[in-house]
Structure to design on (328 residues):
């Protein structure tokens, strides 16, 4: 398979970092943003205000015209999870059948309880969905720091070819066919990162942070098992690896949201004070999906209760501390 032309849809920090990475890997890249004014600014300055440390590679063409991605060999769909369906629908009329479309959002669609590749399958029939996820901050990738992620597709040959096309010495995508496991790791860890941020913002200490991350990983594992994910995927880069990064990194949007909540901000004020945090949208749907399959996820349920303003921080912490002590 030849992937000489990569289109990246979404010119935020992560989309820009991935566009640069694809260019550094030797690909011709088209970076799409829906705002023509933003496109004009980026094209003229060869930079993105959301990622000022990274100059756009000369092989990247910035555009607001969706038709310009119609001859791309593969698509990186780097838009928020709750917006992915609408963009995927627009893609359906622009791309030939069989084009790989790689979701780079870590979330679950709230209105349908669908994972990102399911949304692509429904919204852009005939495309070949894949998922890219793992422990990665846009700024690190933009600076050329060593980063490893997971790229999963149902077809092992396709996953390997995409990983080869996007990879380089400093950016290493590991291939997988466990699409659902990769999606679950990315979605659940965002919710758990909010909980970790609350612990930090409340000043509950390093011991509490370690306990929460460990017990949170157990929740992720139970949810993954109920949905057919492989244990090795959940304990790999896109599961445990991403959880460790997001629950401890100050660059994490979800962790930052949790810190704001832990310091006493209301959910509305915390949202205003931080950049988009996917976990805030995923918490409620994750709780619903866990209940539907009778999966015990008390930490994620507590985050959902806080975000939905059904409980305050102290009530949520008390509910966790009052749970019966059982076997690990």
């Amino acid at each position: 398979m030849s992937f000489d032309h990569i289109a990246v849809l979404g010119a935020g920090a992560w989309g820009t970092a991935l566009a640069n990475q694809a260019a550094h890997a030797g690909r011709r890249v088209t970076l799409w943003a829906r705002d023509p004014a933003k496109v004009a600014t980026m094209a003229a300055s060869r930079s993105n205000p959301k990622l000022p440390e990274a100059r756009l590679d000369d092989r990247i063409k910035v555009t607001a015209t969706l038709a310009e991605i119609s001859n791309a060999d593969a698509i990186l769909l780097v838009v928020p999870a709750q917006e992915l369906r609408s963009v995927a629908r627009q893609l359906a009329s622009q791309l030939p059948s069989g084009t790989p479309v790689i979701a780079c959002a870590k979330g679950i669609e709230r209105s349908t309880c669908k994972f990102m590749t399911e949304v692509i399958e429904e919204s852009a029939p005939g495309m070949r969905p894949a998922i890219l996820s793992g422990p990665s901050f846009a700024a690190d990738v933009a600076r050329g720091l060593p980063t490893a992620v997971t790229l999963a597709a149902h077809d092992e040959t396709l996953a390997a070819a995409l990983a080869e096309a996007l990879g380089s010495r400093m950016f290493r995508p590991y291939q997988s066919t466990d699409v659902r496991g990769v999606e679950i790791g990315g979605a659940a860890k965002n919710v758990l990162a909010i909980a970790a941020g609350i612990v930090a913002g409340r000043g509950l200490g390093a011991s509490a942070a370690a306990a929460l991350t460990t017990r949170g990983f157990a929740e992720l594992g139970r949810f993954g098992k109920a949905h057919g994910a492989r244990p090795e995927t959940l304990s790999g880069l896109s599961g445990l690896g991403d959880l460790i990064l997001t629950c401890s990194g100050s660059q994490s949007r979800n962790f930052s949201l949790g810190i704001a909540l832990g310091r006493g901000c209301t959910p509305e004020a915390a949202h205003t004070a931080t950049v988009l945090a996917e976990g805030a949208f995923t918490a409620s749907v994750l709780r619903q999906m866990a209940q539907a399959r009778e999966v015990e996820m008390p930490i994620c349920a507590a985050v959902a209760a806080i975000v939905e303003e059904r409980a305050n921080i102290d009530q949520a912490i008390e509910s966790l501390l009052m749970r019966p002590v059982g076997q690990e």
Notes: The mean pLDDT is 94.
